[in-house]
Amino acid sequence: MMGKINKPGIAVLSMLLILFYISCSKKSNPADDKTTNGFDKTAMLTNYADKLIIPAYEQAQQKLTGLQTSVNAFLATPNLTNQAALKIVFKDTYLQIERISVLEFGPSRDNSLVGFINTLPANTMKKIGEKTDLAIMEENIASGNWNLVQNSAVHQQGFPALDYLFFANDALAKFTDANSTNRKKYVQDVLNRIKSLLDQTLSTWKNTYRGQFIANTQSNSGSPISYLLNQFAYEMDMLKGPRIGWPFGTQSGGIQFPELCEAYYSGLSLDLAIENMNSLKNMFTGGNSGKGIADLLAALGNTSLKDEILNQFNVVDSKLKAIPAPLSSALANNKPAIEDANKEIQLLLRLIKTDAVSKLGVQISYVDNDGD
Predict the structure, then answer these.
(1) What one-character-per-residue DSSP string does 112-168 give?
(2) Can you list the domains of the chain with their CATH numbers?
(3) Which ranges carry the Imelysin-like domain (predicted)?
(4) Which one, of 364, 372, 367, lies nearest residue 342 by Cα?
(5) Rg of the chain (C-alpha set)
(6) Coil, strand, or helix at residue 40?
(7) Would the pLDDT of 242 be above 70?
(8) pLDDT of amino acid 192
């Protein structure tokens, strides 16, 4: 005859089973361990913070200071010579902005840093009858009234706006016309806004966020590793879409929009795209330090995937460099080269967004621009 089962005993057994299940679940993702096959993730995150991220923001500050000096010289005497000198410094600074684009998490995201300083293009597409952002910007300059803090003004500031203000065909004439005083004030306000956002972001990284970043070695949503992988994938989506694909016509039935190119007016689109992609590779490898996401991937037993991704970065680099500058002209005149680059960009995106993310136990949390 079967004995009577003790109900408290069942409860205890059930609780033990639940705890065992939770314990096993926590250990089911090796990427969540602080150390994986001898690979120290705290050391990896420390390397990112101290050798890559904080220095990148510091360099952006330094370059912006140099840009402000060149801008002041140009505004004092708006001529071709000073415009040419300004373009050299503008390019150097803009390239550094591409290097911090992949860092849009933590303090950067809290400040909407990249959103305000490099939302592209400057001249957004509007519905028929509506004003473009450049038209609104010109009206604001004419009236002397603007508000760069409001979200609706993201396309009216930052480097895309400066690109238009400094290098549009009629830029020099407008810096000497009846509205030149307002235009110069607008430029200074845009620069001061960029500086303020950079200063806030770097200060938070140094004072509080660095410690939080290094301490969290998990791979779940909201963790530094998740942020990094999501930004890697997002930047590749941006390269595939807004930087190359959209101007080329991939989302408009082949109808091209050269004016949607990043840095359309200065003709720096390809330089910026290449720098953005190579800065992404540098972040993926942790600065070739042996303490990067690529090395974590290898520690988890995915060396072949790591090598495939690094090789694909090189392929994309060569394909982008094969496109004649400026991109706005190459769209129509060098279609095969752009199609080749697009194909390789999509392969790199898949390797990062699907394969690497899966192996590292990370989920993609952003919504992409065009659904791949």
Answers:
(1) THHHHHH-S-SS----TTSPPHHHHHHHHHHHT---SSSGGGGGGSHHHHHHHHHHS
(2) 36-359 (1.20.1420.20)
(3) 53-339
(4) 372
(5) 24
(6) strand
(7) yes
(8) 98
